[in-house]
Design goal:
228 residues, alpha+beta, Arc Repressor Mutant, subunit A, 2 domains, six-stranded antiparallel beta sheet, 10 helices, globular, DUF6597, DNA-binding transcription factor activity, transcription, HTH araC/xylS-type domain-containing protein
């Protein structure tokens, strides 16, 4: 069973996922990165460009999901180096520090809150994310074209692409596609007809929506939403 709540860290979400016998679906691209806790290990989920299917038997997970573009500064690593990867936090931070953090989470009365405390502590010692990145996400999530957004923000296309690789793991066009996918999924899950979903999310038409969903998730929209 999956559950989430707003984090004490601005813009982040804290979530848990425990096996419920129904089988877990793939993790879909959403523009975010996560700090993960499972079976005594701290891991980082990099930005996805394709569906991620966890390996091995089902197990419980907890995580802090960071708003797009904010995790690299907290973790101290460019997002593109973690694209489509799950890595041990000890591969990014000193192993002795990570071992102490794992011991603290393991011993905490509420491991989820302890995981959140790690993120909050890191944020307190890290420079705030570049506000331009937040404005970029907002505009692309509104369906604004990449070129027009770059011009509005006063950033050249090459500079924007380089900054996006570091912050999001991929270029602004890929980010725009992923944000549009998430808009479409939210509409479709709310019962909006597919043709209307396509137009409201920013696709040319329903066939365009169908192609994009299959390319980014590996399955048709109906199957993704549990409709067969």
């Amino acid at each position: 069973m999956y559950a989430e709540r707003a984090s004490r860290l601005t813009g982040a979400v804290v979530w848990t996922n425990t096996p419920d016998g129904a089988g877990g679906g793939p993790v879909l691209p959403d523009g975010c990165m996560d700090l993960l806790w499972s079976e005594g290990r701290l891991l980082v989920a990099g930005p996805d460009t394709r569906p991620y299917v966890p390996e091995g038997p089902p197990r419980s997970w907890a995580g802090v999901r960071f708003y797009p573009g904010t995790a690299p500064a907290l973790l101290g690593v460019p997002a593109h180096e973690l694209r489509d990867l799950r890595v041990d936090l000890a591969d990014l931070w000193p192993s002795a520090r990570v071992r102490r953090l794992c011991e603290g989470v393991e011993a905490a009365p509420d491991p989820v809150a302890a995981l959140e405390d790690i993120a909050l502590g890191r944020a307190a010692r890290t420079t705030a994310p570049d506000p331009l990145l937040g404005r970029l996400v907002e505009r692309l999530d509104e369906g604004r074209p990449v070129a027009a957004t770059a011009a509005e923000l006063g950033v050249g296309t090459r500079t924007l692409h380089r900054r996006c690789l570091s912050a999001f793991g991929y270029g602004p066009k890929a980010l725009a596609r992923i944000l549009r996918l998430q808009r479409a999924l939210a509409l479709a899950r709310a019962g909006t007809p597919y043709a209307e979903t396509a137009l409201r999310a920013g696709y040319a038409d329903q066939p365009h929506l169908a192609r994009e969903v299959r390319e980014l998730t590996g399955m048709p929209l109906g199957t993704l939403l549990g409709g067969g």
